[in-house]
Amino acid sequence: MASTSKPAASTTATKKYYFYVLLCADQTLYGGFTDNLQRRLATHNAGKGAKYTRVRSRRPLQLIYHETFTDKSSALKAEYAFKHQSRAAKLKYLSAHDVKI
Protein backbone atom coordinates (compact mmCIF):
# COMPACT_ATOMS: atom_id res chain seq x y z
CA MET A 1 0.00 0.00 0.00
CA ALA A 2 1.40 3.37 -1.01
CA SER A 3 1.86 5.92 1.70
CA THR A 4 0.25 9.26 1.14
CA SER A 5 1.06 12.32 3.12
CA LYS A 6 -0.42 15.75 3.12
CA PRO A 7 1.89 18.65 2.53
CA ALA A 8 2.74 20.36 5.79
CA ALA A 9 0.73 23.48 6.41
CA SER A 10 2.81 26.59 6.31
CA THR A 11 3.33 27.53 9.94
CA THR A 12 6.17 29.94 9.40
CA ALA A 13 5.18 33.54 9.91
CA THR A 14 6.60 36.26 7.75
CA LYS A 15 10.04 37.13 9.07
CA LYS A 16 10.35 40.64 10.46
CA TYR A 17 13.33 42.94 10.28
CA TYR A 18 13.80 46.11 12.27
CA PHE A 19 15.56 49.42 11.91
CA TYR A 20 16.06 50.82 15.40
CA VAL A 21 17.47 53.87 17.13
CA LEU A 22 19.17 53.78 20.52
CA LEU A 23 19.77 56.73 22.80
CA CYS A 24 23.16 56.33 24.44
CA ALA A 25 23.94 57.47 27.99
CA ASP A 26 26.12 60.25 26.53
CA GLN A 27 23.06 61.49 24.56
CA THR A 28 24.39 60.31 21.19
CA LEU A 29 22.19 58.33 18.82
CA TYR A 30 22.93 54.93 17.33
CA GLY A 31 20.95 53.42 14.45
CA GLY A 32 21.00 49.73 13.68
CA PHE A 33 19.30 46.77 12.05
CA THR A 34 18.21 43.44 13.52
CA ASP A 35 15.69 40.64 13.32
CA ASN A 36 15.29 40.50 17.13
CA LEU A 37 14.99 43.81 18.99
CA GLN A 38 15.16 42.54 22.57
CA ARG A 39 18.17 40.32 21.94
CA ARG A 40 20.01 43.07 20.08
CA LEU A 41 19.37 45.67 22.80
CA ALA A 42 20.63 43.22 25.44
CA THR A 43 23.74 42.56 23.34
CA HIS A 44 24.45 46.28 23.04
CA ASN A 45 23.94 46.87 26.76
CA ALA A 46 26.23 43.95 27.60
CA GLY A 47 29.02 45.70 25.71
CA LYS A 48 29.09 43.04 23.00
CA GLY A 49 27.25 44.89 20.24
CA ALA A 50 28.62 47.28 17.68
CA LYS A 51 31.99 48.88 18.29
CA TYR A 52 30.30 52.26 18.85
CA THR A 53 28.10 50.97 21.67
CA ARG A 54 30.85 48.95 23.40
CA VAL A 55 32.25 52.13 24.93
CA ARG A 56 31.31 52.03 28.62
CA SER A 57 30.37 55.73 28.77
CA ARG A 58 27.68 55.15 26.12
CA ARG A 59 25.88 52.52 28.18
CA PRO A 60 23.18 51.95 29.18
CA LEU A 61 21.42 52.33 25.87
CA GLN A 62 17.71 52.93 25.53
CA LEU A 63 15.56 51.85 22.58
CA ILE A 64 13.72 55.01 21.55
CA TYR A 65 12.42 54.14 18.08
CA HIS A 66 11.99 51.24 15.69
CA GLU A 67 10.37 50.47 12.36
CA THR A 68 9.29 47.03 11.21
CA PHE A 69 9.97 45.70 7.70
CA THR A 70 9.09 42.45 5.97
CA ASP A 71 12.28 42.42 3.94
CA LYS A 72 15.88 42.74 5.05
CA SER A 73 16.86 45.09 2.23
CA SER A 74 14.38 47.80 3.26
CA ALA A 75 15.50 47.67 6.89
CA LEU A 76 19.15 47.95 5.87
CA LYS A 77 18.36 50.90 3.59
CA ALA A 78 16.59 52.68 6.46
CA GLU A 79 19.61 52.08 8.71
CA TYR A 80 22.03 53.34 6.04
CA ALA A 81 19.99 56.49 5.41
CA PHE A 82 19.76 57.28 9.13
CA LYS A 83 23.47 56.74 9.76
CA HIS A 84 24.41 59.13 6.95
CA GLN A 85 22.40 62.07 8.30
CA SER A 86 23.64 64.87 10.51
CA ARG A 87 22.59 64.86 14.16
CA ALA A 88 20.15 67.70 13.42
CA ALA A 89 18.55 65.68 10.61
CA LYS A 90 18.33 62.60 12.86
CA LEU A 91 16.60 64.63 15.57
CA LYS A 92 14.19 66.07 13.01
CA TYR A 93 13.42 62.55 11.72
CA LEU A 94 12.75 61.30 15.25
CA SER A 95 10.63 64.34 16.08
CA ALA A 96 8.54 63.71 12.95
CA HIS A 97 7.89 60.21 14.35
CA ASP A 98 6.81 61.60 17.77
CA VAL A 99 10.01 60.63 19.56
CA LYS A 100 11.03 63.11 22.23
CA ILE A 101 14.59 63.15 23.53
Explained architecture:
With 101 residues, the protein is an alpha+beta fold. It has one domain: GIY-YIG endonuclease. It has 4 helices and 3 strands. A hairpin with a 5-residue loop joins strand 1 and strand 2. It starts with 16 loop residues before the first strand and ends in a 5-residue tail after the last helix.
Short description:
It contains four helices and three strands.
Topology:
Layout: E1 17-23, E2 29-34, H1 37-45, H2 51-54, E3 62-69, H3 72-83, H4 87-96
Antiparallel strand pairs: 1-2, 1-3
What structural class do helix, strand and pairing data support?
A: alpha+beta
β-strand percent reads 15-25%
User: What's the SSE pattern?
Assistant: EEHHEHH
* Average of the residue pLDDT scores: 91
CATH homologous superfamily title? GIY-YIG endonuclease
Tell me the CATH topology: GIY-YIG endonuclease
The CATH architecture classification is: 3-Layer(aba) Sandwich
Low-confidence stretches: none
Distance between the termini: 69 Å
Number of strands: 3
Give the strand order, joined by hyphens, for the main sheet: 2-1-3
Shape: globular
Residue share in helices? Answer: 25-40%
The total count of helices amounts to 4
Return the CATH class. Alpha Beta
Domain module count: 1
Quaternary organization: single chain
